[in-house]
Write a structure and sequence with these properties.
Strand content: 25-35%
Distance between the termini: 38 Å
Order of helices and strands: EEHE
Helix content: under 10%
Shape: elongated
Length: about 60
C-alpha cells in the first residue's frame, strides 16, 4: 500500500474585472482579481478625454 502526500493546491475564487466602452465595444482594461468582502485595486485607463467622456464607472465582474 502506498500513501501519497501530494494534495492539489487550494485555489482561491477569482473574478475578471472588465472596463470598456459599450458604444464602441472597446476594451479599456482587464484584470483578474480575488477578494473576500471588499476590493481596492488600481487600473490604468487611457488619458484621452474623448475615450473617457462616455465612460461609465460601472465595472463588470465575471467568474474566472
Amino acid at each position: 500500500m502506498v500513501k501519497l502526500e501530494l494534495d492539489p493546491p487550494v485555489k482561491e475564487e477569482a473574478w475578471w474585472l472588465v472596463l470598456g466602452n459599450v458604444q464602441t465595444s472597446e476594451l479599456l482594461a482587464l484584470k483578474r482579481v480575488s477578494f473576500s468582502d471588499r476590493l481596492v485595486t488600481r487600473m490604468e485607463l487611457p488619458s484621452e478625454p474623448a475615450i473617457l467622456q462616455s465612460f461609465c464607472p460601472l465595472p463588470l465582474l465575471f467568474p474566472a
